[in-house]
Structure formats: C-alpha cells, structure tokens
Specification:
Helix content: under 10%
Strand content: over 45%
Number of helices: 0
Number of strands: 11
Largest sheet: 7 strands, mixed
Distance between the termini: 37 Å
Shape: globular
Radius of gyration: 13 Å
C-alpha cells in the first residue's frame, strides 16, 4: 500500500495550491481521508472527507479557505488551498483510514510574505 502526496511548493501570500493524495494498493473509496500538517510542533488537523464524500470537516484555521474533495475514480483526494498565508507553511500529510491507517510521506508547502 502506498499513499503519496504531491502538489506542494512555494507560493506567495494570497496564492493557491492544490495538493493531491493518491493511493495504490487500496481502494481509496473505502477510506475516510484526512489531511494534517506538522512541523516542529504539534500535528494539526486540516481537513477530512468521508469515503462517500458526503461529509467534510475542516480545522478552524483553514475553514473557508481550504476545500477537500475526492475523485474515487482516480483513487485520489484533493486539498484546494486558497488565500494562503505564511502561517500555512508546513509539511502536509495525507492519511487514509478504515480500521487501519496509511500515511504518506508528506509534501512541503511554503508561503512567502
């Protein structure tokens, strides 16, 4: 099983990025998928989407700016990040869980002021 994040990079404040979380070895449509971010400090919850896509939740700091979505045909979950701010700079991780959890290796997002 592999979970791979991509789409990170360097962007100016106010800009946008779209992260992707692709899975192989599992049918991602069976799994709830969440995004977290973590640097030297604590892990912070960013967003979560249910297996069907019907339920979405967001962390307080990203509510209204980030949008999580999924394309089960492509076995991929997306995180659209708009109005990025320097405090969004971090390593973003994707996890798929359904009893067992699988984590990706992370993708770095850097927002310059």
């Amino acid at each position: 099983v592999r979970v791979v994040e991509s789409g990170g990079g360097l962007v100016q404040a106010g800009g946008s990025l779209r992260l992707s979380c692709a899975a192989s070895g599992i049918r991602l449509s069976d799994y709830t998928v969440a995004w977290y971010r973590q640097g030297p400090g604590e892990r912070e919850f960013v967003a979560r989407i249910s297996s069907s896509g019907a339920t979405k939740e967001y962390g307080d700091s990203v509510e209204g700016r980030f949008t999580i979505s999924r394309d089960n045909n492509k076995n991929t979950v997306y995180l659209q990040m708009d109005s990025l701010q320097p405090e969004d700079t971090n390593t973003y991780y994707c996890t798929a869980y359904w009893g067992t959890s699988y984590w990706g290796q992370g993708t770095q997002v850097t927002v310059s002021s």
